[in-house]
Structure formats: structure tokens, C-alpha cells
Amino acid sequence: MTDQAAEQRSGQPAEQPAERPAGPVLSARGLHVDFGVRGGRRARAVDGVDLDLAPGEILALAGESGCGKTTLARAMLGLVKPSAGTLSYAGAPMATSGAGLKAYRRAVQLVLQDPTGALNPRHTVYEAVAEGLRIHGITDNERDRVAQALSRCGLRPAERFFLAYPHELSGGQRQRVVIAGALVLEPKVIIADEPVASLDASVRGEILALLLRLRDEFGLAALVVTHDLGLAWSIADRLAVMYLGRIVESGPTEEVLSAPRHPYTRALVSVLPDSPVPGPMVLSGEPPDATSIPAGCRFHPRCPALASGASEAAGVAPSCLRTPLPVLGAEQDRHHVACHLATATPPPVVTMERDE
Fold it and tell me: Per the record, which residues fall in region Disordered (predicted)?
């Protein structure tokens, strides 16, 4: 619905989205996150990432389990301390302690995967949504703020839900309460970890439509962590694909999914309906081990292009085995790929229509 249509329907001027500042609202440069594991080894969960999130943008961070996407999201929330690299919010270095970190966590909010686990079963909906206000010492107009947040998330009339407990709500309603708990603080960014993974298929579309509406009406930026490329195709402006701690392909969602260039992305896309990749691709070999990053391209032990001889035919097989690839840049309007074969061959020309 356009702003003009909304104005005609309600009889009131349509609310205009907030003006979006220039430059990224959230940035990572050279980000590394290491963890110690048994035996004195180090697991490189995030192994060099450059990433920008623009105001009002939905960026999907995709990859299989263990690729580092959740750790990257937690680092960008300030919940995990980076081993190296920098994080910036609105062009300034992210605070790591005190009042600065508290203010940052008000501006950048988390939406968890499981709404049942995220909500205290002994707290009413009102208490759940008001909790953030109380933590941050916001005491003025608490009731109005809670009601507005619930209404924005489609729980209307909001007062009807104030005294309800989580077990009295449907799964979709619980997830809306979780999102309302983030929105009540009027953040600039939401980081959502698998926001619809635990919901029924009939409810998933409603929550995704809600995220899109919040982006369009309030200029809210969102980093959505997912293993589901179908979800990314539905809502994301841009897609970043991670493998073994590093982004291996990124760019506008339609470009990446219509013409995937990295063999790993091609394998992920191959199982989508109407995929531009002919036939499902099954990856061989063991899942990646973050304590032992392979030499050369980190994907080469499982790479179908290397196994089939395509890399050798293109003359890049030695590079795949021995030459490390650089960290991908963070430019938002470019389709980047970290692959010796992809950079040595022209990109495929494929079209893939998005359902409206």
C-alpha cells in the first residue's frame, strides 16, 4: 500500500519514514573471533570479515550450521568480543563498556529464534515488552510506548494482550511480542537470528511481511541470520554467504541467487525451486573444521569444480590448493565472489524471476 493510499484509507496523513543518514549504520572491518578449544587449539569462528549494513536495508547472512554466521551476529551485537578488527556504529567505533555500550544495545536490538524460549513464562506480555524500557531507565509514557510497539507488530488492540501470558498466545503472536520488545526502544537496527525457523509455514509469511513493513515505514535496518535462502529471496535487499568463518559471496540478492558464482553458493542454490543451477548438487567430504582452515581456498576440500576438473581446465587448480583468497570488500552495490575459478571465468547470464 502506498503512502497516498494509506492516507486516503485512514483519513490522516500517512506517517513518513525517518530520514536515513548517509553511510552504513553498522560496519565490520577485518573482524576475527577466535575461541579456545580442548587441546590448546583455536577455533577461528569468524576469520576476517568486512561487512556494511545500510540504513533501511535488510541484509541476509546465510550459510550452513557452523559457518560462523551466528558468531558474527553476536559480535556485531557486542555480545562477543572480537579477537581482531573493528566494529562501527553510525561511523563511530562501537563502545565496549559503560554507558556507551548500553546506548549501543538500545540502538541495536536482538530478535531471537525461539519466541517461547525468549519469553519468561511468568511474565505477562506487558511486562515482557516493558522490560527493555525499565532496563534502560525509560520511565515516561511506559504504557503508551508498550501499546504502540504491540500495535506496530500487528497485535491490536494492544490492551487486549497486556495481561496475557506466553502460553496463551500462538507461535506467531509470541514472535510478534518478541519483536515488539525490541521495537519499544526505537532501535535503528534489528539483528534477527533465524526469526521464523520455529514457526509454522502459515505464520512465516506474516512475520516476514512485518519485517518488510517495519523497514519501509520506519527505516529500520535488519541483519537476518538464516540457513534458508528462500527466506533471503523473499525479504533481503542483499545477501552474504558465509563458509568457514568468511564471506565467500555477497551482493544484491537477486544477482547472487540468479547467477551464483561460488561453487558453495551454487550448491546451496541448486536445491531451491526453479533454481538456475541445473540439478541438485550434493557436497562431498566432511563439514568444515574451524580449528584447521585448509590452505589456499578454504572450500577446496569439498569443491565440486575442483573435483570435476573444471578448475584444472581453467588453469587455477594450483591456486585453489595453495593461494589464499583475499577478504571480500564491503561495497553494497557490487556482486563479490572469493573464488579462483569464478574470477578466471566470465559470470553466467541467468534470469530467475521473483514471485510477487
Answer: 1-27
- Beta sheet of 108-111, edge-to-edge order: 108-111, 189-193, 221-226, 58-62, 238-243, 246-252, 336-337
Instruction: Per residue of the chain (356 residues), give pLDDT as tens.
Output: 334 433 433 344 334 444 444 689 999 999 999 999 888 899 999 999 999 999 999 999 999 988 999 999 999 999 999 999 999 999 999 988 888 999 999 999 999 888 888 999 999 999 999 999 999 999 899 999 999 999 999 999 999 999 999 999 999 999 999 999 999 999 999 999 988 887 888 888 889 999 999 999 989 999 999 988 988 999 999 999 999 999 999 999 999 999 999 999 999 999 898 899 988 888 888 777 899 999 999 999 999 999 999 999 999 999 999 999 999 988 878 899 999 999 887 655 444 455 44
Q: CA 311 to CA 317: how far, in whole Å?
A: 5
Residue 349 CB neighbours (<10 A): 8
- The amino acid at residue 177 is V
Phi–psi pair at 100, nearest 5 degrees: -65, -45
User: CA gyration radius for the chain?
Assistant: 22
